[in-house]
Amino acid sequence: MSYNNNNKKSRTFPDPLALPSEKLQKSYGLKYAKAIESNWGKIDDESATYQKRRREFERNRDYANGTQDTTIYKQILNSLDPNNGDGTLLNLDWAPVPIVPKFVKIVVNKILSSDPYPNLQAIDPLSSSKKDAKKRKLQAQIRNKDLYSMMNQSGIKMESDPSQIPDTLEEAEIFIDTNIKTDAEIAAQVATDITLQWNDFNDSTFRRCVNDLVTLGMAVVKRQNDPNYGISTEYVDPSDFVHSYTEDPNFKDLVYAGHVKTITIEELKRVAGNEFTEEEFEKLAKQVAGKFSNDSSVFGRKYHDDKRDRMVYGYDEYRVQVLDFEFLSVDCMYFEDKENRFGNKNFFFKGESYSEPKSSVFERQSHKMENGTVYGGKYIVGTDYIYGYGIKTNIPKNIHDISRARLSYSAVATNLRRMMPKSIVGSITGFADQLQLTHLKIQQAVAKAKPDGLIVDIEGLDNVQLGRGGELQPLEIQDIYEQTGVFYYRSKNPEGGFQNPPVRPLDNTIRNINELIGLYNHYLRMIRDATGINEAMDGSTPKSEDLVGVREQAIAGGNNAIYDVTHSSMMLYKRVVEDVIKCLQILPGDSPLYSIYENAVGATNMGVITSFAELPMYNFGVVVKKQMDDKDRAYLEQNIQIALSQKEIDIEDAIAIRQLRDVDQAERLLVVRRKKRIKQQMEQAQANSQAQAQANIQTAQAASQAKAQEMQLKAQLDMRMEEMKAQLEAQRMQMEHEMRKEVELIKAQATLGFRTEDQEFKQKLEVLKENRKDERVDQQATKQSKLISQRQGRRGELEESGSVNVNDLLQ
């Protein structure tokens, strides 16, 4: 089992098939702890696996923080003494360029910006049947929604509000994950969310774990389950984490695990309680004196603390290394199925060991049950002391396979080879070193850039003081040139003549600056290629001419490059949530913590979660979902605004879409609501068209009816006129008939009467004629007499005699 070849005193692990009574002994636990120590090596052993991985992790953290050791740069650039020089003669700023921290923050913040959250789904048969029943009920409600609305309007109280029922099955499918939940799922979801909030998991522990995955390639969380102190999630530094050999990056096949903590002896006295005597603490202090920065001079000090009424020893401030470890084991329990003398069979528990009797009167059958257990304790590294050892209680198990147990450590790695994880930071440290060297060389080139100076020919000048003894050493000439830019040389030719003027200007520039800048950009591109974080992903140099599709492809490429980190972080989150919900299920009903959860989530919910007495017991599957990122949210909001501007959705639809945390659900809901709105608009337009057509028909019908009424009235008037004409004609004809009748009657009467009157008339006419004749004779005689008398003038006119009236005569 040992994989530390450097440790010559490798210890073997104790017998895993030992009886539980033997495993409970401290000697068994101490042997197991020493075997772990043997595998990983002593803490102060630089060649041990523990120290090798710790050094690698600390180195990566220095690079991730931009605080890596600069000694290597000083040795490379210090030309005077490459082995021992510290670079103090170089006028350079040795502070590392914070390029690696930038890439670490980009990856960490991108993962954390998704804000993962757990979605619990009950996967046991009972819960599945309940969910299926709810789905069928929802489908029935959708089909009968119109009927429910009519009943609701009629005043009949319904179980659910018809306005909250989806219109289609497609819309209902979107809300099934959030709305179709059993009571157990709802209770478990609420309790898990509260537990994570109490532990500040998302904002503290999970953030540190994601940073460890990027920097170290590994992250570890330990779950604590105490009925009195609560369910806690504790961050574990991967540098202090030890475990059994594995090549699985999800650490699912661990046999043991633990982590090293540094505490003081005073703290050890508190947590160990009465397991050690003061003499044992003193022996322990002697073993660690001078180690871990412990001051040996304070070992013998002691005094009495009157306030706390106890002795205080100088070695109480000493620090010790404690290995908190645990390991999986299998304890066997034997049962016997035995027949008694009455022929009945009984079932008996036979303890940890059992051997069937060779000769038995009654029929016997043995049964073996293997129960997975977890043992653990705390071992003071480098000593023979162990405390808090025993079988772990309140271990969360899979409720459908209670024979299996699980360690309290949840560990993941991006990749793992020979127990050494490889991280993003570890893959770019070489490029970061070259980039830092290039940066320092740029500084060096700038520092060595000389001011504009003069070239002075000392042979061409007379009476010039040249220094000590009239001569300048080569190093002194170099120092003068380095500080002033003035360079001294002799310009005589072999014949003794002067070749150049004694004083000339000397122009200087920064040497190789463009080449160094190009080299710096080259190593920066190498870092981008190694990490997969391109310019589009970090938004450092966006180009306006780049198409949106090109940027999207670049971002997708970056996401693919960091997928292993994203996947590992989600796996860690899922395993922590699985442990939390299993711990909630086994909370004792009489514990103070159970009362706290009852007050937080309700007694009914806690009763549902912990209902182990009911079969089948609830088994929850955990799905870790992520909030939509800024890009998805911006794209979704753009689609919402387009739909709103075209009146394809209303404000209520937009609010419902924005409230969803999953981008897929939000987009599906947008499509469904948009189709629903368009269908409503089409139905409204069709209704309006039908209403307009109906109105036109009604108007035409009204006009036709008015015209028909007018024609009917006209016909009635014409008929009335005809009737009146006919009546008048009839009356006229009747009157004419009557008149004719009267005329005929008169004619008849006249005809009869005229005959009598004719005789009388004739007679009177004859008399009249005679009378008139006489009158005319008289008148004629009178007129003649008058004429004669007048002619003669003897008399006046004669008097006219009275005339006779014909009518009188006729009468």
Layout of helices and strands:
Blueprint: H1 20-23, H2 26-40, H3 49-65, H4 71-77, H5 100-113, E1 117-122, H6 125-143, H7 145-153, H8 169-179, H9 183-198, H10 201-215, E2 218-226, E3 230-236, E4 241-243, E5 256-264, H11 265-272, H12 278-288, E6 302-305, E7 310-313, E8 319-339, E9 345-351, E10 364-380, E11 386-391, E12 409-413, E13 416-417, E14 420-421, H13 424-447, E15 453-457, H14 474-484, E16 487-489, E17 503-506, H15 513-531, H16 535-538, H17 548-561, H18 563-585, H19 592-601, H20 603-609, E18 620-625, H21 630-645, H22 651-658, H23 663-792, H24 806-810
Parallel strand pairs: 15-16
Antiparallel strand pairs: 1-18, 2-3, 2-12, 4-5, 5-8, 6-7, 8-9, 8-10, 10-11, 13-14, 15-17
Q: Largest sheet, if any?
A: 6 strands, antiparallel
* Mean pLDDT metric: 77
Sheet/helix structural class: alpha+beta
Helix run count: 24
Low-confidence stretches: 1-10, 612-617, 801-811
- Span of the ends, CA to CA: 182 Å
The number of E-state strands comes to 18
Shape: elongated
Helix content: 40-55%
Features of the shown structure:
811 residues, alpha+beta, 6-stranded antiparallel β-sheet, 51% helix, disordered N terminus, disordered C terminus
